[in-house]
Amino acid sequence: MGLWKLVRGVRQLELHRLILVLIVFCLLSMAFLAYFVSNSPKIKEAPPMPFSDCGGVVAAAAGGQRAPLFLPPFTVRQRTVKAVDNSRTEPVVLVFVESIYSQLGQEIVAILESSRFRYHTEIAPSKGDMPTLMERDIARYALVIYENILKYVNLDAWNRDLLDKYCAEFGVGIIGFFKANENSLLSAQLKGFPLFLHSNLGLRDYHINPAAPLLYITKPNEVEQGPLPGDDWTVFQSNHSTYEPVLLALTKSSEALAHLGPHRALHATVVQDLGLHDGIQRVLFGNNISFWLHKLIFVDAIAYLTGKRLCLSLERHLLVDVDDIFVGKEGTRMKVTDVKALLSTQNKLQTLVPNFTFNLGFSGKFYHAGTEEEDEGDDMLLQHRHEFWWFPHMWSHMQPHLFHNVSVLAEQMRLNMQFAQEHGIPTDMGYAVAPHHSGVYPVHSQLYEAWKSVWGITVTSTEEYPHLRPARHRRGFIHRGIKVKHCHFTVKLDNLIQKNMKESIRFACVLLIRPSVFKSKKNNAKLCYCSLSSINPCHDKRHKDIWSKEKTCDRLPKFLVIGPQKTGTSALHSFLTLHPAITSNFPSPVTFEEIQFFNGPNYHDGIDWYMDFFPFPSNVSTDFMFEKSANYFDTEVVPKRAAALLPRAKILALLINPVDRAYSWYQHQRAHQDPVAINHTFHEVVTAGPSASKELLTLQNRSLKPGTYATHLEHWLVHYQARQLHIVDGTLLRSNPALVMDGIQQFLGVTPIFNYTQALVFDEGKGFWCQRLEGGRPKCLGKSKGRKYPEMAPETRAFLTEYYREHNLELLRLLNLLGQALPTWLREELQSTSWS
Ligand code: A3P
């Protein structure tokens, strides 16, 4: 008992000690915390600045003093903002729109497209699920934009949590718009945020907060007096340090509004959420982006929130062509006053854009062809010729596409050059513009040739490629060494001179011109280049109007035999040409029979080059022209290019067992003395591992890759409809060509139905079907088709059968989906593999 008391006494003593130790520990930690809090940086640390500088300087606000333009912040719990995730190579923007027709949604997309930013649109789900945000552990989207921010704040808890966690984890920002309507509450709190909205206000006199971290293209030093357009503005109010105003304005009415506090103060219509509230950075707009300044801030917001991975450089090159100098009917031409206005506009623009110079395009034939006053205007232009840049149109302002003969075009150009020399106009610009942009796109090769020979032109421009509208889709290209830049927008000269000079210069499209790559000799215009894709001129009236009358889309193929190589494409070609209504291209001197236009460098020779391979059809509706280029099948770029020029063409693909195709290709290479094929057995070629020589792997790839049929066919099906595609059974073509040719005739809809049973004869010596000549003699394909070579080794066949098994299953699925008959070889192959 005594012992028990003693133990209890000792325990109580320990408990007291423990409590004492705990109290001392708490006091020490409080003192420690107080010390560090008082010495830590003050609140409102700016979030991490973007990494790259997008080719320019970092935002003006970096390190700048924050002006007290918003309600004073109070200390709140800080949240750290995750740096923008830089892991994706190509950042994509996820845009939640209200509907596919909603105006603001379209404006957002237009800006993203003009800036060439990749994006994906989704209809904003009110309830329902978020689109998939992750792809194999990689964040799919670098930025989220909500056309209607309420769709974001009103997301159900699960989806909201999902999106917020994604944004916080990967440093993804959110841009949102609040566009008030007559039903909007005048004042309300944004659900879940320490932020109040006051709607349907008229505003005036905007200011840009120089301390807003997102500012990049937008310069804060301008304050514009006067009303902002519309009376449906929303302003944001908060006393949380996470919100930094970006754009501020006064309310229109001179009275202070009760719900906005007692003073008539500046109110924020765009705010930047620095992420101090919940770790996510946001930019919120209290209106749409119709107001020009919102466009700028929107572009800046994208740049900022993506760490400048989606960013427009600050560099802009402005080239204003003033077309048609000396051209025009009496009474419509420039007089002395107009020339003075032009010069004074140029001077004013030079204060904004150093060395800005108008670029004048002239047609000499019409010099002094106006009224007396207008002729004086011509003279004044020439007196001041050294203050401008000059470029030639045609001498008589004729449209080049109307002239087929290069020498006629060259003569016209020479006359204009003579005029320039006589009047002291410089002739070394290297830049020209065709009247009406005729001959530039669709390409009129004769124009390019004459330009090069007479003027040494290296750069021209058009607004026609690929089409006039929408302007933001316009691109440049290079043809025969001449760079074709795209005109982004056209302004009426009198607008620039008198009415809207300021607005013209502020053009959002000036903002959105992407820096690009061309420089002409003198003007330092950087331009955009994309590869030329020949688009069918007959499907666009504007293109047709500026296309040579001697050219016709009837001179283009109605169908293509796309290969792949070694499947019997030459036999099919020769059988097709027996048909009285079917015509092939003229043989290419370079590639023998095949043109190979869409798959390689020939493509850059343009549509004229391609069309020259085809005769003019005698009857457009009944004549069927085609071309066969066997490596179209597996060259990925071909379907897109072919569909741009021949969207209505029918496509024939010829398939044999890919194992036999591979072997035939190997034998073909041996016959052409390919040293790799000669020095290696077929088995060695197809089984070579990754450490094999480059040459061996190339041969392996060219043997095996075309045989993954389904993959290649899927590329074609992206650009052509299933009903345009016909799969020809190559094995059946070899054994029963008449039957196959009947099926093809039906598919093409060609008349008359040609009797191939009579037209073909089996040649025992050759072992193949051949053309039956008069008297029944066979005319077969040459020695290179239907070669004699040993059987494939059984183990190699087994290896390849296994190699292609999955691909063949994929082909089976695809053909079933398309409702196409299965080739006999595929049926047999799948039957035998399923037994093994
Ligand atoms: P092999 O020479 O390996 O036997 P392509 O013309 O696409 O290059 O294909 C050549 C293959 O077409 C030949 O391969 C041959 O087997 C096959 N072929 C099918 N029908 C033919 C025919 N009537 N005459 C010659 N070869 C034919």
Would you write up a description of this structure?
- The protein is an alpha/beta fold and 836 residues long.
- The protein folds into three domains: 93-306, 3-Layer(aba) Sandwich (Rossmann fold), CATH 3.40.50; 317-513, TIM Barrel (Alpha-Beta Barrel), CATH 3.20.20; 553-833, P-loop containing nucleotide triphosphate hydrolases (Rossmann fold, 3-Layer(aba) Sandwich), CATH 3.40.50.300.
- It contains 26 helices and 28 strands.
- The strands form seven sheets. Strands 2-1-5-6-14-13-12-9-10 form a nine-stranded mixed sheet.
- Helix 21 (709-719) runs parallel beside helix 25.
- The longest helix has 38 residues, at 2-39.
- The radius of gyration is 36 Å and the shape is flat.
- The termini are far apart.
- The structure holds adenosine-3'-5'-diphosphate.
- Adenosine-3'-5'-diphosphate is lined by residues 565-571, 630, 664, 667, 733-734, 768-769, 781, 785-787.
- Residues 565-571, 630, 664, 667, 733-734, 768-769, 781, 785-787 line the site of adenosine-3'-5'-diphosphate.
- The chain crosses the membrane at residues 18-37.
- 3'-phosphoadenylyl sulfate binds at residues 664, 769, 785-789.
- Belongs to the sulfotransferase 1 family. NDST subfamily.
- Its EC number is 2.8.2.8.
- Disulfide bonds join 770-780.
SSE blueprint and pairings:
Blueprint: H1 2-39, E1 92-97, H2 103-114, E2 118-123, E3 134-135, E4 138-139, E5 143-146, H3 149-153, H4 157-170, E6 173-177, E7 187-189, E8 196-201, E9 203-208, E10 224-227, E11 233-237, E12 243-251, E13 267-273, E14 282-285, H5 292-305, E15 321-325, H6 336-352, E16 359-362, H7 372-383, E17 389-392, H8 406-422, H9 445-455, E18 459-462, E19 477-479, E20 482-486, H10 493-499, H11 501-506, H12 508-512, H13 541-545, E21 559-563, H14 569-576, E22 582-584, H15 606-611, E23 624-628, H16 638-645, E24 650-655, H17 658-671, H18 675-679, H19 682-687, H20 694-704, H21 709-719, E25 725-729, H22 730-735, H23 737-748, H24 756-759, E26 760-763, E27 768-772, E28 778-779, H25 794-818, H26 824-835
Parallel strand pairs: 1-2, 1-5, 5-6, 6-14, 15-16, 16-17, 18-20, 21-23, 21-24, 22-23, 24-25
Antiparallel strand pairs: 3-4, 7-8, 8-11, 9-10, 9-12, 12-13, 13-14, 19-20, 26-27, 27-28
Helix pairs in contact: 6-7, 8-9, 16-21, 17-20, 21-25, 25-26
The chain binds adenosine-3'-5'-diphosphate.
Adenosine-3'-5'-diphosphate is lined by residues 565-571, 630, 664, 667, 733-734, 768-769, 781, 785-787.
